[in-house]
Structures
1.
Amino acid sequence: MGRADKHIHQNDLFLYDSLLVKRLADGVHFWPDFVGFEIPDEFVVGYALDFNEHFRDLQHICVISKEGYERYKRK
């Protein structure tokens, strides 16, 4: 075990991060230590987030439209 591993185990300190955190009406029970972006409570796609294996190759994150949902939903 390396020096860094020993240091982590001795202190038992864990910090959590999240690229996206949704704003929920009922509140959040857990909040990460580091947040990239707060987003609305909607289904998002892009930047490796997909919908039925579509949209994951987008270089940005966006909310899927109703038309997009209907077009790419499983039949």
2.
Amino acid sequence: MKILHFFVFGLLLSFGAVQAQTPSLTAPLVEKSRQQTAEPKIQIALLLDASGSMDGLIEQAKAQLWKIVNELARSRKDGKAPNIELALYEYGKDNHPSKNGYLLQLAPLTTDLDLVSEKLFEIRTNGGSEYCGWAIEDALDNLNWSDREEDLKLIFIAGNERFTQGPKNYKKVCKAAVKRNIVVNTIFCGACKQGVQLFWKDGADRAEGKYLCINQNEKIAHIEAPQDAEILRLNDTLNRTYMSYGGRKGAEMKARQKKQDVNAAAFSLTERAISKSSGAYKNSSWDAVDAYVENEDVILEADEEELPEELQGLEKDKRKEVIEAKMKERERIQNEIQELSKQRSAYISKERKKQAGQKGNSLDDAMLDAVREQATKEGFIFEK
């Protein structure tokens, strides 16, 4: 059995407003969804075949995660940056119960980029039966999809075995997705012709999606840019602007942030640093600065023991002063990174032109092309 792991995206975080007069810092640690938000939304569910040994694709996903996030963060609709939510599944593993279709939801539709990164890096392959129809149906039924027609809702299912396996009829499942305005794209890991023969193209066609085929063993070419070193230095400075609240849980989530820096270091820490400087990266569920920006009462009215050490023992006005100073410092650093990112993008674009005709056939190439095309049809644009 082979395996495919695919990862996309990227993203803008959105947490619900805290409604209590005196907010508890336990509540914000559970992510909330703004049902009445005016911002457009992009929702993407990633269903990854974890049944075999396609480690090359897993490495591609890890290497390209933050690059994809950064591209999605450049999207706009009616001049507004969208909230981006990502869900992650693995399917085709024998250690998951057969009654559940040998699949597992690793992350719900969420704006928590670090959670998705964490789960991606934890995936381990194992032999099993790949039930594509079941995986798609589970994503349709058990994820919190937007009911707004103007939002973009996509499923990407990746694998390399016959699309028709399992007791769930993929034709009926794909038809159900169309009725709910959810587009299903299929990614076959192997020769395009073989994927057609194994019904991956038929699945995409029936769900009004795009059929993609990639070379999971293609090596990702990394172009070093003169701006990389300074971006990484600024990332270290940026990390010092985060202050966890909510006691042990908040501290754990801050530690998770640091761990994802370590995970990205072997692949794309520069891209991750750029993501952290964009609107796609917010952590109001554990970071005092982001929580204050979203609803200042969460911090100003908080109990002493739930505050970060830097705010303990301070009156409200002093808390506000410290938080706003930290917020301004973060904005300054993020702006510097964004400016360097523009210079870096221009440099890399110039270098790639020297490699004209060498466009790859890797995960990010396939997925970004599909997302751009489908988002554009729904009125989104991608800034240069």
